Amino acid sequence: MIIDILTLFPKELEISLHGALKRADIRFVNIRDFSHNNYRSVDDRQYGGGKGMILKCQPIFEAIQSVKDEKLNKREQKVILLDPSGKKYNQVQAKKISKLKHIILVCGHYEGVDQRIKDFLVDEVYSIGDYILTGGEYPALVLADSVVRLLPGVLKEEVTDKESFSGKNPILEYPQYTRPDSFNGHRVPKVLLSGNYKEIQNWREEEAKKITSKLRPDLLKI
Predict the structure, then answer these.
(1) For 120, what's the count of Cα atoms within 13 Å in the CB-facing half-sphere?
(2) How does 22-50 read in b/e, with b if 16+ C-beta sit within 10 Å?
(3) Smallest Cα–Cα separation from 145: which of 1, 28, 12, 17?
(4) Which of 5, 8, 115, 153 has the maximal Cβ count within 10 Å?
(5) Residue (of 86, 92, 67) closest to 78 by Cα position
(6) Is 91 within 8 Å of 116 (Cβ atoms)?
(7) What integer is the mean pLDDT of 153-179?
(8) Are strands 102-107 and 182-183 parallel, antiparallel or unpaired?
(9) What is the rounded distance in angstroms from the CA atom of residue 65 to the CA atom of residue 137?
(10) How many CB atoms are closer than 10 A to CB 61?
């Protein structure tokens, strides 16, 4: 998979790559390179008045066209905008995106983007949560990381198929422990030391349901 990230801050993002992301083919595209003025500006005041500047269509359009692979169809390639107005991103979407050959991530900034970018230039708009950041750069890295770790050969399959939000019934993961078996008087549950695989599995399933019921009851309604 190739991941192109369209941003106003390519150098800042590049130094953020580590771990699994370093194993991916990630390219950074500076949106300002597609500005048609001497100041390399890519934003402007919004029609109708209002605070904040808006990213313009033209630089985004040309940046997308510069990296889009015309040989790929929409089942193989997606243009994704990271924006608070988008659908809430989750593990189901991460798995779908991981099947693509090419993704183009557009990082919003300032007060937002011209609505025509959302309506006509991108395939999907995603938000990583119900809060506002200064731009789409960190959400783009979040999405890229969640997808790259699912690619064949990056992590062992058994590591990812039992995680929180995975499987047919996506719930939170069960509690996990390591040595020592006693720390400051707090002991590891006996069943995990029993060696009885069936009992351990039953315990993990029950604990996962308890944690999900307490912290994310909404997942049990899916």
Answers:
(1) 7
(2) eebebebbbbbebbeeeeeebbeeeeeee
(3) 17
(4) 5
(5) 67
(6) no
(7) 74
(8) unpaired
(9) 20
(10) 15
Q: What angle do CA 136, 138, 143 make, to 5 degrees?
A: 90
Rounded to two decimals, the pTM is: 0.86
Q: Kindly report the backbone phi and psi dihedral angles of residue 106, in degrees, each rounded to the nearest multiple of 5, phi listed first.
A: -105, 120
Mean pLDDT value of segment 75-86: 96
The pLDDT mean for the chain works out to: 92
Q: Could you give the dihedral angle defined by the CA atoms of residues 48, 49, 55 and 56, in that order, rounded to the nearest 10 degrees?
A: 40
Which run of H or of E encompasses 146?
helix 137-148
pLDDT band at 162 (very low <50, low <70, confident <90, very high): low
Domains and CATH numbers, the chain: 2-148 (3.40.1280.10), 162-221 (1.10.1270.20)
Give yes or no for residue 160 having a pLDDT over 60: no
Q: What's the distance, Cα to Cα, between the start and end of the chain in Å?
A: 30
Q: Comparing C-alpha atoms, which of 95, 98, 87, 75 is closest to residue 170?
A: 95
In whole angstroms, give the CA distance from residue 170 to residue 123: 26
Nearest to 7 by CA among 73, 82, 72: 82
Nearest to 79 by CA among 111, 117, 133: 117
